[in-house]
Amino acid sequence: MEAADEWLLQSLRLYRDLHTFELQAPTRLIEWARGNRVCVAGYGQSDGNEILQLIPPPTLLTKETQGLCPERDFKVECGGFSERPVYSLKYVPDTSLLVTSGPPDSSLQVWQVSAEDSDVIKSVSTIATENGTGQSWAKIATISARAPWVLHGSRLDRVQITEVESRKNVYTAGIQASQGSEELSNLAFLDCNMLLLCCATGRLCLADIRQPQSLMEAVSVPSAPCSEQWCMGTRHGAQGLETSSQPVARLSSRGLLALTDLRKTSEFLALAKVRVPSPGSGAEFLCVSWAPALEGYLAISGFDGTVHVYDTQSWDSSGREAEPIFVHKGHTFGGAGGSRDPPLVTVHTWHLQKPRTLLSAASDGSLHVWDWVQPCGKCG
To answer: What is this structure's pTM?
Structure first.
């Protein structure tokens, strides 16, 4: 029996739901948008990169589970084309706007998702950045607490907030070059005043927009080769949980996971080692994310064609090896194009309401949505 056939048989008992879809081009982002829609975008096509808004399979919009369902049942609702690669895309809450970024510079592109009678996502403006030429692409985050804002920057000393519709600058971090100009891997709004910045070196900083000169640094990650890269995941969506009490996870290209409580940044909440196929071999698609509806669970990807899910509730600061409670291997069996190279998972994200449902995409253009069966003894 071939590995793919064996995996399909195993899927009958490993998954409550499994849906697959083949994109015309691979994506490195999956973003939830208004109305439980899903946005994806291409990142490497020379003749233009599609931005698509998809309607998920019906089972993602209901509470009932309907078993294995491998047909291509995402539906394209609307789309547009970007002349540049799309490396990041964020939906602006409570609007019909999307913000994207990508090479060759740190500028942002703003898009309008058209009304129901149109199937077009159209470009409406560009947010230029001072001295943006020659800078790497900007990492972005969005919020609509006061107005539609986008937080963006490519380096620690080049972080700013721009009002999306007016393109007015509302905040520029007063970080001096002497404080560091490391490349950013992620950034996030904790609320309308507090920002969280993660550098590719693993450095984690808190900034308060009411005090542009302020910068508080969390405990440093363990010393490692300078080639090691880090990314960050923050937890959102937990009801009744203060933002400051939500843990931050940092993942390295060597397979280290560091958890930090933002109420006590001087020490690690937990530290663990995860098995990775080629430690430090690459970090372009590193991804770590917290489950919004499942306490203490996180997922990681970007090392190979799999997504690993962990329960962190029993972790401590010893740094010992952690075992995943589930591994999604579906992308390893190939997708569109029949490429000989093993697909690499480029991104994953959790469903906002369904506790054990994730979406993942790979370098072969495959897009999966899956709900795993909770292992015996771990029901919750």
So the answer is: 0.90
Alpha carbon distance 258, 224 (integer Å): 13
Distance between CA atoms of residues 216 and 294, nearest Å: 29
Cα 191 versus chain centre, distance = 18
pLDDT in tens, the chain (380 residues): 566 666 666 666 788 888 888 998 999 999 999 888 999 999 987 778 999 999 988 777 665 555 554 444 788 999 999 999 999 999 999 999 999 999 999 999 999 998 777 899 999 999 998 765 667 899 999 999 889 999 999 999 889 999 999 999 999 987 665 566 889 999 999 999 999 999 999 999 999 999 877 788 877 887 666 678 999 999 864 444 455 567 899 999 999 999 999 888 888 999 999 998 875 556 789 999 999 999 999 999 999 999 999 999 999 999 999 999 999 998 987 654 445 678 999 999 999 989 999 999 999 999 999 999 876 555 44
Burial class (CB in 10 A: 0-12, 13-18, 19+), 178: exposed
Q: Using an 8 Å Cβ cutoff, are 288 and 250 in contact?
A: yes
Q: How far apart are CA 114 and CA 96, in angstroms?
A: 8
Closest by Cα among 274, 279, 225 to 249: 274
Handedness of CA 29, 31, 37, 43 (dihedral sign): negative
| 332 three-class SS | helix
Tokens of 276: 């990775």
- What are the phi and psi torsion angles at 247 (to 5°)? -70, 155
